[in-house]
């Protein structure tokens, strides 16, 4: 009887470890997605004048331009996926 209970305890501990790994993996993916979106928002805020949005003075945008290569690449990727925003959102949150 004790052997069976010990086996059940080991299985339960293993289940908890796997659940913890899955939860941590999902949390990291969600944070990475949120970071990507924040970088995109920063890029739109700084370089918004290119798409007709109000932006900081042009001198500030031009001063930041050498440091915004990653944001420009991300904005170009967003343009490619702009016609399928829901599919991008669903893939990020693993819905359905």
Which terms summarize this structure?
single chain, 96 residues, mainly alpha, 4 helices, elongated
Report on the architecture of this protein.
The protein is built from four helices and no strands. By secondary structure, the chain is an all-alpha fold. The model has no long low-confidence stretch (mean pLDDT 82). The chain has helices spanning 2-46, 58-64, 69-80, 85-93.
Blueprint (SSEs and pairs):
Blueprint: H1 2-46, H2 58-64, H3 69-80, H4 85-93
Helix pairs in contact: 1-3
Overall form: elongated
Q: Give the ordered list of helices and strands.
A: HHHH
Rg, nearest Å: 22 Å
What is the CA–CA distance across the termini?
42 Å
Largest sheet features: none
Annotation, overall tally of beta strands = 0
- Helix fraction, binned, reads over 70%
> Given the helix and strand composition, which structural class is it?
mainly alpha
Q: Unreliable segments (pLDDT under 50, ≥5 consecutive)?
A: none
Portion of residues in beta strands equals under 5%
> What value does the average pLDDT take?
82
Q: Given the structure, what is the number of helices?
A: 4
């Amino acid at each position: 009887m004790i052997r069976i209970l010990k086996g059940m305890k080991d299985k339960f501990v293993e289940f908890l470890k796997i659940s913890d790994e899955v939860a941590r993996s999902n949390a990291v993916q969600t944070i990475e997605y949120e970071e990507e979106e924040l970088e995109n928002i920063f890029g739109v805020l700084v370089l918004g004048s290119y798409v007709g949005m109000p932006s900081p003075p042009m001198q500030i945008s031009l001063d930041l331009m050498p440091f915004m290569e990653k944001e420009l690449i991300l904005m170009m990727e967003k343009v490619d996926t702009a016609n399928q925003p829901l599919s991008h959102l669903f893939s990020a949150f693993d819905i359905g």
